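> call design_seq(struct)
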């Protein structure tokens, strides 16, 4: 990994965590982070109901807080939605956009995701833009073409490394315990970076995370790959010890 890219270990809690659970997990992570400087940044993305609580609890620590989704508009008649500005106001510094669960279960297209990434930039949040192929696409040999189309469709023009992170999450690897081979992950990340260069000047400085069944057991292998700049972790981010083990696998 290029020295300029500081690794990012991000936890996506998905729809998990009541106030008491979120507070306890945050306290454990802060205690670990407070032991000393680490060569990575750590971000947790709790459910929206916890963003404010956890941001307040994490004040003064290096733990970063993010949302899991946002609307493209700043405000308006969108019942149930949240704007990037609201997440920022609640203490977030980042937001995940285009997670495969949003793309699949909520019909989000690359264009929708792009609008959300632009909203994140407008609000001063880092957008963690998720992309990834389905098993069917992989089996048809279309992985790199799918990733390329998703990058070009989802990443806004003139993005900067400071406000965009890309997360490569093969849909078939999410929550399944299966991961692509290290060679396949490396090839995907290299291709994503090459494609990103069409969207931004500093693609070399942009962090590309791997996500999908990252566990303490496979973290060192995945995070040790050339163009892998961190991880977006689902299930294993709900246990402080596991999440920490993944983070520290980075060295
Ligand atoms: P798992 O780590 O549970 O496979 O989830 C990955 C994910 O979707 C993170 O956004």
């Amino acid at each position: 990994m290029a020295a300029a890219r500081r690794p990012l270990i991000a936890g996506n809690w998905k729809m998990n965590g009541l106030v008491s659970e979120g507070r306890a997990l945050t306290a454990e992570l802060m205690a670990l982070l407070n032991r000393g400087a680490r060569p990575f940044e750590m971000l947790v993305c709790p459910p929206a109901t916890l963003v404010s609580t956890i941001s307040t609890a994490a004040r003064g620590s290096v733990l970063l807080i993010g949302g899991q989704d946002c609307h493209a508009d700043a405000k308006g008649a969108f019942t149930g939605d949240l704007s990037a500005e609201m997440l920022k106001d609640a203490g977030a510094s980042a937001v995940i956009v285009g997670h495969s669960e949003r793309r699949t279960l909520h019909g989000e297209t690359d264009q929708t995701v792009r609008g959300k990434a632009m909203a994140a930039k407008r609000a001063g949040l880092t957008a963690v833009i998720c992309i990834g192929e389905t098993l069917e696409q992989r089996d048809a040999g279309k992985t790199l073409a799918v990733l390329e189309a998703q990058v070009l469709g989802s990443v806004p023009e003139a993005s900067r490394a400071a406000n965009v992170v890309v997360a490569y999450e093969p849909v078939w690897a999410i929550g399944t315990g299966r991961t692509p081979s290290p060679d396949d992950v490396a090839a995907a990340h290299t291709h994503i970076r090459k494609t990103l260069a069409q969207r931004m000047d500093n693609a070399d400085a942009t962090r590309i995370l791997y996500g999908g069944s990252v566990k303490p057991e496979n973290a060192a292998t995945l995070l040790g790959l050339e163009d892998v700049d961190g991880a977006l972790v689902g299930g294993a981010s709900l246990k402080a010890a596991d999440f920490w083990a993944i983070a520290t696998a980075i060295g």
